[in-house]
Design a protein that fits this description.
Butyryl-CoA Dehydrogenase, subunit A, domain 3, single chain, 5-stranded antiparallel sheet
């Protein structure tokens, strides 16, 4: 989930040119992402340009950028905390309850990371949908549709939320803490032989 979120944040295909409408223009395809905008020509040549100014960007792009950076940071720390909380690592090996709680904390970080990715991608998709269906003089084939990075982002958020939920389930309940299970001796019904 974290690797997919990283790929979604870096990819410039958050929105792409729409090929709907009567006059389809296939010579140049435009892609825009959080960090750059690209133009792909039919010859295979791609030219990309970074966004010039942070403050001149639309609010939804700035918000999506911030949410994706927060998501990646939470996921990175979630990986570190989860590795420490795994049963196969030697760190904190003396107390299994504490180790499982550490793994549960990593799960919470993954869950929050997935929610941030989901919020960023959904906010951007909402803006693309609004601009596509808005009444304007721009022809429909000059508008933008969902890009592939949005779908990668939705998949990444699903994986992070699922992985975080599974790690949270590994945290033991308080009443099981320190509880030992001993096998009780059962009375013998057979004769004892000496």
């Amino acid at each position: 989930g974290w690797v997919a979120a990283l790929a979604a944040a870096v990819l410039p295909q958050w929105r792409q040119s729409s090929y709907a409408g009567d006059a389809i223009i296939t010579a140049v395809g435009l892609h825009e992402g959080l960090w750059m905008s690209c133009a792909a020509q039919s010859t295979g040549q791609v030219q990309c340009r970074l966004h010039d100014s942070l403050l001149s960007l639309d609010v939804h792009i700035q918000t999506s950028r911030a949410l994706m950076v927060i998501s990646l940071l939470l996921g990175f720390f979630g990986i570190i905390v989860s590795v420490v909380g795994m049963k196969c690592t030697k760190v904190g090996e003396e107390d299994p309850v504490t180790k499982s709680r550490i793994a549960g904390a990593g799960g919470v970080l993954f869950f929050l990371s997935g929610l941030c990715t989901l919020a960023a991608v959904s906010l951007y998709a909402t803006q693309v949908t609004y601009e596509f269906f808005r009444e304007s003089t721009i022809p429909i084939n000059a508008r933008y549709e969902f890009g592939s990075a949005l779908f990668v982002g939705w998949g990444a958020s699903s994986l992070s939320v699922l992985g975080g939920s599974l790690l949270c389930c590994s945290c033991p309940a308080k009443e099981r803490r320190g509880q030992q299970y001993h096998r009780q001796a059962q009375p013998s019904t057979a004769r004892d032989y000496v």
